[in-house]
Amino acid sequence: MEKTVRSICGFCHTSCGMKVHVHDGKIKRIDGDLDHPVNRGHLCVKAQGIKSLVESEERLKFPLKKTKGGWVRLSWDEALDLAAEKLIEIREKHGPESLVRSSGAPVSYEARDGFLQFMGVYGSPNLTGVSNLCHVPRSVAFMDAFGARPEPDYENAQFIIFWGVNPVNTTRFCSYASYDGYHQIIPRAKERGAKIVVVDPIRSETVSFSDLWIHPKIGTDSALGLSMAHTIIYEDLYDEEFVGQWMIGFEETKRHVEHATPEWAERITSVPTEQIRELARLYATAQGALILDGNGLDMHTNGVDTVRVICMLIALTGNIDKPGGNVFFPFAPQRLLPTVKTGKRRIGWEEFPLFPNCPFPAVKESLLRETSDRPRAMIVHHSNPVLVQANQERTKRALQNLEFLMVLDIFPTATTEIADLVLPSSSDFERVDYRAYSSSRGAYLAFRDKVVEPVGESRSVFEIEYELAKRMGLEKDYPFRNTEEWINFVLEPSHVTLNDLRNHHIIYVTPPVVYKKYQKEGFPTPTGKVECYSERFKNHPCGPLPSFHYPKESHMTHPELSKDYDLMGTSRKPSEFVHTKFRNLPPLCKLYPNPLMMIHPKEAFSRGINQGDSVEVKSPRGRIQVEARITENIPPGLVVIDFGWGNPTDRGASLNILVSDEVWDPISGGYPNRLFLCNIKGLS
User: Fold this and answer.
1) Is 637 in contact with 630 (CB distance < 8 Å)?
2) Whether the predicted model's global pTM rises above the 0.90 cut
């Protein structure tokens, strides 16, 4: 029997539409969906791994319990009874705040919402995970300044800056918007005559499509941005009408950047003074200019302040919510989980009062110090903290101090290896889900249909969650019992049901975008205006206006380490994979079999390293072995190492063995995963 299922890929945030052809219950072929506004039929190479993922023999297929003698298979009843017993015991002994949920990037809404309701009814506010390293640090800056997270309006932009982002590689050109085919965004912009600038210390794939490449020293982006603000203000290039009516603290901002001349920034960033002025002038005078910030800014010890500077540039030029700028596109209303609020303070609230959840360092340090109020149990859902967070061995040691660690996943990972209980999750293609997108044409919802039956005994997270809650007597506070009921519950504000999505697949739920909404509504900030001068930050060591600080691990801040560690290291994510996933899938592994270390020819020659050599990379934390790739795309003094290997199924080297967890961003707890001291030596 053959059928074609219209669904959505769940491999990354882009969430492309696809048509999956199924024969006798197995995936036969996958095509891009020409009618889906995100991709218009285009699929990236990751789609080649979907069939392999579903059918892999390495899948987790039944619950597993760790014993002194090794892993023991459990029935679902045994596994859920064990989890309920442990979590009840820990709550009674240590209180509900002793439970932490650790989650990963919400590439699906099942990943976003899984075990959120459980945390509320259990009574714990402690939500942690990858948020200190991805997207949320930048969102903190945008939410503080504008009250909401804007999207780039490519369709009307005449000037585009890609800052700390490589969308040609990642396919992520926004947060959650669509543009009638992401693969056509740059070609259409160039046909329209738009100018494209890339700010990145590395010659990325996106640089090939740019008109101007600005390559500051890594970690110095905020100095570049402040000097652009200086030029815009002191050359009277700012939008006087917008600034006068809608920007709080302009005079304070002007005094704040007075010292930040392009000459000052050149000494820090190595970007020539005239190039800084040119960039500032082009951005400020364009009719519709936007900045897309990227994950390259999150994983630094000064990440939040860097994006606060970007917000300042957007505000000074009036490029907020206007055609071609950074715009508040409509978004589908949804219910937020959990519906039960604890009223309790989360771990780390004193140190990180401006961050919306628990930065991982707060949880980790509490576990390592073994404080009386430390976490005692953790539920890890759609996450792999052992590989993702800095200083892998120290992260593992912290999690091993838990009394109970339960992990839900599809494959064995570095985190499942240290778990007490492992539960098999169904994949994105074995359950239903949905996705919400924004766009200039209006907000819309799209349906992810079930393609095949779950492998083995794997289950959807909401079935697991509800059954566990029922065993603990918590089910009375649940508005859903399974995935289908969850979808109907969270989508009720949009007046769309699961059956509606099944029948129509894509449903628009709002009118098209309206620009300059602030003229009638103001901004969703306490003052109703843009708050680049922030009263909330005023009482924090960062101060009311963003400043430049050298990265906390660099040759400038630690000159004594320069002799032994003369290079700076950073990381990259190959486009064939997502985060720490899929390196065990044969079609993708064949395309990119091993992690690489990229190095400039000058640095390679001085160390006697040849193309393809096995090399040792050493930092003050540890050492790994990887394969050398010599390229002029990397500047001298810097090496770039692939991130994401280190699971038991891929047998590759884990970059985060090298990264410091002794320092972090004071607002977000962002570790310097993109910047660490190292040295290199050849092994062959």
Assistant:
1) no
2) yes
